[in-house]
Amino acid sequence: MKCPICGKEMQDGGIVVDGVAPMWVPKEQFDRKGLKRIIYREGRSIGKTNIILGQTKISGAFFCRECNKVIGIFDVTNNID
Length: 81
Ligand SMILES: [Zn+2]
What we know:
Layout: E1 11-18, E2 23-24, H1 27-30, E3 44-46, E4 48-50, E5 55-64, E6 69-72, E7 76-79
Antiparallel strand pairs: 1-5, 2-3, 3-7, 4-5, 5-6
The structure holds zinc ion.
């Protein structure tokens, strides 16, 4: 995949999360402060969690050496609602 910022070829890879699975939430919910941030609606889980290892693996993460950024195209696996 080409980097959308500089146009160079990106390195394919993945993200590994130790612990609970990460979740995508809409921007207005992501930006909440204080106690309101505890409750999220319309969240989407990403990655595959292995409970025994306590680890979540997320494929579709591309790294650009030039920009030093990771850009992701992530499948969402379920609807939290
Ligand atoms: Zn780049």
